[in-house]
Specification:
With 112 residues, the chain is mainly α. The protein has a domain of 69 residues: Hypothetical protein af1432, CATH 1.10.3210.10. It is built from seven helices and no strands. Helix 1 runs antiparallel to helix 4 and helix 4 runs antiparallel to helix 6. The longest helix is centred in the middle third of the chain and has 15 residues. It is globular.
């Protein structure tokens, strides 16, 4: 029997829960730029949409998931690796609120 690391179990568990179940917000800048998060919440991830995934996550949900993953593995990171990580994760998709979720690199499954 293969055991999953605790962060994978936690992530797997949190991904199955409805979004409204998670009460704590991980987005520290949501009150500063609410219009950005409204736009990112309504924007579905293009890669998932292009592949026909049912109920694809929004860009906002993607950002929240990344921050939760980073929190789970934070203890494994050096101070240098953690420096600015959470801030970068929170704002890395802000331009998509204006330009949309562009797929930068699309790999052909036969090339993988």
């Amino acid at each position: 029997m293969r055991l999953l690391p605790s962060w994978k179990i936690s992530l797997k568990h949190s991904m199955k829960m409805p979004a409204n179940h998670i009460k704590e917000t991980v987005l520290k800048l949501e009150s500063v730029a609410p219009e950005v998060y409204v736009a990112l919440h309504s924007l579905k991830r293009t890669g998932w949409v292009n592949r026909g995934v049912k109920n694809p996550e929004s860009v906002k949900e993607h950002t929240e998931a990344l921050i939760r993953i980073a929190r789970e593995v934070e203890g494994l990171l050096t101070m240098e690796e953690k420096d600015g990580l959470f801030e970068m994760l929170e704002v890395h998709d802000w331009p998509e609120a204006i330009h949309g979720d562009e797929v930068i690199l699309e790999l052909n499954p036969n090339e993988i």
